[in-house]
Recover the amino acids of this structure.
C-alpha cells in the first residue's frame, strides 16, 4: 500500500509569491492534516480536512489556506510569502477523523525555502 | 488548550545502554498521548500511543512508554538502544474531541554512539 505522498519535495520561492503544495493520502483515508515544522517553532498544526470540509484550524494567518478534493487529495496554499514561511510542511492522513487515537500517517514533507 | 514539554533537547547515549526521553503534558480535558520518531529527511513515524487502559504501552522497535496521570508524564524508554535509533523523537497530545489535531513537543534528539 502506497504511503502518503507530497509534491513537490523541495521548493524555492521569493517573498511576495504564492505557493501550492499537494498531498495524496493513503488510499481509503479520508482525513488530511497539515503541519508546519520549523527549527524555532517546532511542529505546529495548520488545519485538517475531512470529506472536503475543514474540521480544525490552527493559529495561522489567513495567508495559509487549504482544500480537499473528492478523492481526498489535499492542497495547501500560502499567499504573499514571507521569509518566516520557510519550513518543512508535513501532511498526514488518517482513515477517519474523530475516533480517539486514529493513527496519522505522515508524508516525507515539502521543504519550502523563501528567499 | 494542551501543551507538551520535552525537557531534554538532546540525549547522548552509548549503544546498548538504556535510555529515557522525558515528556510532560498539560491539559484541562482527557488526552491521548503519542510518541513519534523522525529520521533525517523523512516524515514522522508513530512509535506508540496511549488512549486508555493499561498505563504501560509497548510500541515498535522495542520502545515503551508509561502514562502517569498524577505526574502528567508520558516518558519513553528503551532498555538497550542501537545506532539506528539515532533520530528526533516527538511527544504529542491530542484532546478528546479533536483527535486529529496534534500538539507536539519541541523534540528530543537521541544520539547513539559506539
Amino acid at each position: 500500500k502506497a504511503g502518503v505522498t507530497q509534491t513537490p519535495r523541495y521548493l524555492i520561492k521569493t517573498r511576495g509569491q504564492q505557493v501550492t503544495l499537494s498531498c495524496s493520502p493513503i488510499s481509503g483515508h479520508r482525513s488530511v492534516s497539515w503541519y508546519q515544522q520549523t527549527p524555532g517553532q517546532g511542529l505546529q498544526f495548520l488545519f485538517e480536512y475531512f470529506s472536503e470540509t475543514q474540521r480544525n484550524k490552527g493559529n495561522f494567518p489567513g495567508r495559509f489556506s487549504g482544500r480537499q478534493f473528492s478523492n481526498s487529495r489535499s492542497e495547501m496554499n500560502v499567499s504573499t510569502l514571507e521569509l518566516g514561511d520557510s519550513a518543512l510542511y508535513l501532511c498526514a492522513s488518517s482513515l477517519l477523523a474523530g475516533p480517539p487515537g486514529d493513527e496519522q500517517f505522515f508524508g516525507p514533507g515539502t521543504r519550502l525555502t523563501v528567499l | 488548550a494542551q501543551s507538551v514539554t520535552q525537557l531534554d533537547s538532546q540525549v547522548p547515549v552509548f549503544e546498548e545502554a538504556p535510555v529515557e526521553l522525558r515528556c510532560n503534558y498539560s491539559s484541562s480535558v482527557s488526552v491521548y498521548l503519542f510518541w513519534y520518531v523522525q529520521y533525517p529527511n523523512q516524515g514522522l513515524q508513530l512509535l506508540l500511543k496511549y488512549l486508555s487502559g493499561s498505563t504501560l504501552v509497548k510500541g515498535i522497535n522495542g520502545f515503551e512508554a508509561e502514562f502517569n496521570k498524577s505526574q502528567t508524564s508520558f516518558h519513553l524508554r528503551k532498555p538497550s538502544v542501537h545506532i539506528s535509533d539515532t533520530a528526533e523523537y516527538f511527544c504529542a497530545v491530542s484532546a478528546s474531541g479533536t483527535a486529529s489535531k496534534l500538539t507536539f513537543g519541541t523534540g528530543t534528539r537521541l544520539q547513539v554512539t559506539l
User: Anything to note?
Assistant: Chain A is about 0% helix and 50% strand.
